[in-house]
Amino acid sequence: MSATPLRALSFDSAAAQYAANRPGYPPALLDAVEELAGRPLPGARTVDVGAGTGIATRLLLARGARVTAVEPGPGMAAELQRSLPSVPVVRGDGNRLPLATASADLITYAQSWHWTDPSHSLPEALRVLRPGGSLALWWNVSDASVGWIAEQGTRLGRHLGIDDGAHGTPGGSGSRNVETLSGDFARRLLPWSRTVPVDTHLANLATHSAFLVRDGESTRRFLDEERGHLAAVFSDGAVEERYVVELAVLTG
Question: Which residues pair with 129 in a beta bridge?
């Protein structure tokens, strides 16, 4: 396997940790999806591709969408089925959607479009969408305009040897995600934040693929050092993570 598929499936080894520590999304995100798609979510036949452990799936269900999850990783799919047993889960990926033509009102990719080959995944999405249906892509990107996040991003880049913003690593540069999309996508940037214990923040970091494919001892050393950096900023042990959700919606 190439590096990208290996990284894409690396989450299986940390599915429970992923579900427990990854951030969700603000209510304003699904408000914007409804607005840009031009239809309400209640009753919408929705396919959540690269659904992972169901973080976005759960929010879509709460809005009344009729959701089918598509997930390639067995560990992630099992975690999703454990927490959302009523949701149909189909094993597959965005490059080859195992779904009928013209069967969905909305297809969503929450933090997952970058794992696909758009030359395949975009035609596949358009095939599965009904006429007038919408494709919604979004990413949580750490807000590097915040001083401590920018500093952490520098340390992450130095440790990992990469600028990993396109894959959502906190501190990454981010905005490449929507800026590189082709087609008539409508775009929104939605800032939000959450405050979590430092242990949750570090556990969140550890669930990113750039760490999951690396030596565990190296990761532990980095996270121990990062705990010290965070203690200097958040003396009470509560970390304010600030994000910008990058949203892009294409309607047929």
Answer: 104
For 90-115, what is the mean pLDDT? 96
Does residue 235 have a pLDDT over 50? Answer: yes
DSSP letter string, 148-193: HHHHHHHHHHHHHSS--GGGT-TTS--THHHHT--SS-EEEEEEEE
Stated pTM of the model: 0.91
Say how many CA atoms lie within 13 Å of 233 toward its Cβ. 18
Beta strand ranges found along the chain (DSSP E): 45-49, 66-70, 89-90, 104-110, 129-142, 186-197, 238-251
Rg (CA), the chain: 18
Query: Please, are residues 126 and 45 in contact by the beta-carbon 8 Å criterion?
Result: no
**3-class state of residue 115 by DSSP:** helix
Domains of the chain: 3-251 (3.40.50.150)
pLDDT in tens, 120-130: 999 999 999 99
Q: Which residue has the tokens 């999405």?
A: 125
Residue carrying the six token digits 């979510």: 41
